[in-house]
Amino acid sequence: MSEPPKERVKYIDTNLNLPYHYYAGDYKALYLRALKDKKILGSRCSKSGKVFVPPVIASPETLAPCDELVELPHRGIVTTFCVVNVPVYGREIEIPYVVASVALDGADVSLYSLIQECAAADVHMGIRVEAVWKPDGERQGDHTDIRYFRPTGEPDAPFESFIHRL
After folding, report:
1. Is 74 exposed, middle or buried (0-12, 13-18, 19+ CB in 10 A)?
2. Which residue of 71, 99, 115, 162 is most buried, as measured by CB atoms within 10 A?
3. Cα(30)–Cα(146) distance, rounded to whole angstroms?
């Protein structure tokens, strides 16, 4: 038996294969197919009226069915955000960049996305943004079909209008 190493192990460099299959289910599959057509779908709770995006079958709050699908606009507001100053392996993006929680108009749950086409210092809570899509023919029906969101230039949303969505 060999002796333990004298130095601490700092990292291990190896190839790792973790095969898996993801089955979206009915609602998620509808949502993903809609993205390919530049549509964002949510589902409305039959009890509370809240709209969840991506769509869910039942409300996590009321457990009531969310059987009404709703097409949402491509615009919304930044509710929270993070300025990232650390490069991500395998991702070609200039730092600093912003990842934000975007509450689409008409939705009660936010999406997470990049905010681009502006300086990171210009992003703030309440800024109005719109989706920037991959070009026609490049969308595949997955979350990357929305490349990022960018500021619209519209007036900021007042804090009171989105505090319940933080």
Report:
1. middle
2. 115
3. 16
Provide CB contacts within 8 A for 69, sequence distance 6+: 30, 41, 42, 43, 44, 55
What do you get for the CA distance between the two ends of the chain, in Å? 56
Tokens matching residue 34: 């809609």
Tracing tokens 């606009």 back to the chain, one arrives at 73
In 3D space, the residue among 126, 123, 130, 165 whose CA is nearest the CA of residue 148 turns out to be 130
Give me the amino acid identity at 150.
Answer: R
For the residues of 20-39, what is the DSSP string, one character each? -----HHHHHHHHHHHHTT-
Domain extents for the chain?
21-72, 73-166
Binned at pLDDT 50, 70 and 90, residue 1 comes out as: low
Judge whether 50 and 78 are in contact, CB under 8 Å: no
Taking a C-beta distance cutoff of 8 angstroms, is the pair 38, 135 a contact? no
d(CA 76, CA 60): 23
In this predicted structure, the answer to whether residue 11 has a pLDDT above a threshold of 90 is no
> At residue 5, does pLDDT exceed 80?
no
Output the average pLDDT for the chain.
93
Q: Report the distance separating Cα 166 and Cα 87, nearest Å.
A: 26
